[in-house]
Amino acid sequence: MSNSLTKKIKIALAGNPNAGKSTIFNLLTGSHQHVGNYPGVTVEKKIGHLSYKEYSIEVIDLPGIYSMTAHSLDEVVARNFLVYEKPDVVINVVDSSNLERNLYLSTQIIEMGVPILYAFNMYDEAQEQGLIIDKDILARFLGGPIEFTIGIKREGKESLLDRAIEIVEGKIDYPKARIGYGKEINEEIDKIETLLLGDESLRQTYPTRWLAIKMLEQDKDVLKIIEGAEERVAIAGQLEKSLAYIEGIFDDRAGAIIAERRYGFISGACSEAIRKNYEVRHNLSDKIDSVLINRALGLPIFLFLMWGVFKLTFALSEPMMRGIEWTASWLGRGIAQLLPKGSPITSFIVDGVIGGVGSVLTFVPIIFLLFFAIAILEDSGYMSRGAFIMDRLMHKMGLHGNSFIPLLIGFGCNVPAIMAARTIEDKRGRLITILIAPFMSCGARLPIYILLIGAFFPKEIAGDIIFSLYMVGMLVAVIVAKILRKYILKGPVTPFVMELPPYRMPTMRGLLVHVWDRGGAYLKKAGSLILLGSIIVWFISNFPWNPLYSRDYLKEMETVRGDEVALARVENEMAKEKLEKSLAGRFGRLVVPIFRPLGLEDWRVPVSLVGGVAAKEIVVSTMGTLYSVGESDAESASLRENLRRARTAEGRNVYTPLSAYALMIFVLLYCPCSGVIAVTRKETGSFAWPIIMIGYTTTIAWLLAFVVYQGGSLLGLG
What we know:
Layout: E1 8-15, H1 21-29, E2 33-37, E3 44-52, E4 55-61, H2 73-85, E5 89-95, H3 99-111, E6 116-121, H4 123-128, H5 135-142, E7 146-148, H6 157-168, H7 183-197, H8 200-205, H9 208-216, H10 220-227, H11 232-250, H12 254-273, H13 284-292, H14 298-338, H15 344-361, H16 364-379, H17 382-396, H18 404-409, H19 414-420, H20 427-436, H21 446-456, H22 462-488, H23 508-527, H24 529-540, H25 553-560, H26 564-580, H27 583-595, H28 604-611, H29 617-626, H30 639-644, H31 657-669, H32 674-684, H33 688-714
Helix pairs in contact: 3-12, 5-12, 7-9, 7-11, 14-15, 14-16, 14-22, 15-24, 15-29, 16-23, 19-32, 20-22, 21-31, 22-31, 23-24, 24-29, 25-26, 27-28, 28-29, 31-33, 32-33
């Protein structure tokens, strides 16, 4: 019996975004996968493992790309992996309903001479469009076997793995596809390749025909490789002659002619193998798009849908949030009765853990419902239309067109949004996108909004207020982008090219996976980072444990013992003074003058905001801890109730609806969390930009919150 450990296969998955590559990756590997980064770059690396027919198979999910032209980090990583890692098989995942567009990447993989297997994914959609694909004929053109898959329905796994093994074992031997670029260009490719074959190091490392084609396309990375070749002078001389010759004949760049011939090859192959010209057919997606991305109706429809999402999610989640609030309150009362009254351990568990983490868990329902609604828009194909619609507005204001996709991701979390900016070719546009991404209102800020809205605004307008905050963030991002482009990072705005995938009916499995990926991260934070933050806040709000009090509370307690109302009053006054004399209280009173012009006179506000620099959810957990101390009947009250009845030393309400809205504006815009700061330093390669980001976001937050509060007060809205 053969040793399975010696039979190993390395498979790389390559394909366009929206072709279902990640779905195929999940289909093949299941839960046996992990994520890291490629060496030396910030591009995510997904690797999965499986065992199949005595083979140990490693699957690498390459970044989704449209070409191998190395304009972006993702393209460089994908190309370098195929060139240097030399996988046993490349599975090229192709959207069956958009063949001519998807196969452009396939032609460039063919040029690299790697063993290739085609996964024609979403085959059910191609059938719905009336397409009949003769895969045997098309496979001969493309130089590799074709398997039809429907990844989202988990169809095609075994056939893909069987074909991959047959390729490795040499049981499938398709003649290598060779794309013809016409007599003139082919001759120039041959001349350059002949010189490349004379260099042993190049010949052993690279596919020489591919190198020759890339040189004619003036690929910068390939030209750098040639600079180190032994025959670099002769090769460079021939390249110069070939470029001049081709341009003289065609009156155009060699790269443009090569791209044109690739599309010609694809068109010819599809004409032979496909019996319906779907490219000119106006399908259902086209008809829907005529309304949804209409120049006049597109933007109002997009804004209306986003407004509806916020209204609906708040309305549905409110009863569930109240249930979690009641449960946390009941748990706190129960534990408080079991433990010694007034002891540090009781305070730690009830105020620190339950008051802190419990306050954050209250907002799990709305987080999951919001992510579910956004997943429906994404999986249906509408969110790509949203990016297309918003681009018209943003492009006029100097924001890079491709920037909207990372910014859209920022509504979930700003960290992956900044990482997604690496696909933007223009360096200035990429940096601008990174610098404005923190203005996108991430999911971590949502619990703070819900807390303050639930405490100070009627539930009927809750969705409207949340929607206004998201719009303010986008507006500020656009204005800052315009200023950066005009005065600091000057340069032309590159055009926006984006593929609009066909509309699809989302599957429940796909929706739940997306919701758990995002919502699960929120729960993990509650069990780790937020718990740690709550413990730290509890400590600094209780140290020193026995401060020097202004009066003898213990003596007063003895005097009023037997009078429960009077005893509770003295205990609360003692707890308040202890909190004010703690480390947290001293810091809060020191910096609270900065926040008074914003209508925020309570020292507990700046303490909570400082915690938000670690993670925005900690703002809520910190409030849960600080506002559960010294409030009458605190054990039975929710955090929202404690906020409503919080008073200043002079007896005024700490919060009004206007000051609460100003606080939400500040939370929306101020210093991003530590994760965003770290990834910004990594993506920009500089410590300067994160420091600048901290400065201008916090400054803008203070100024806009000041305008909101002072302007509202002048208008009598306070």
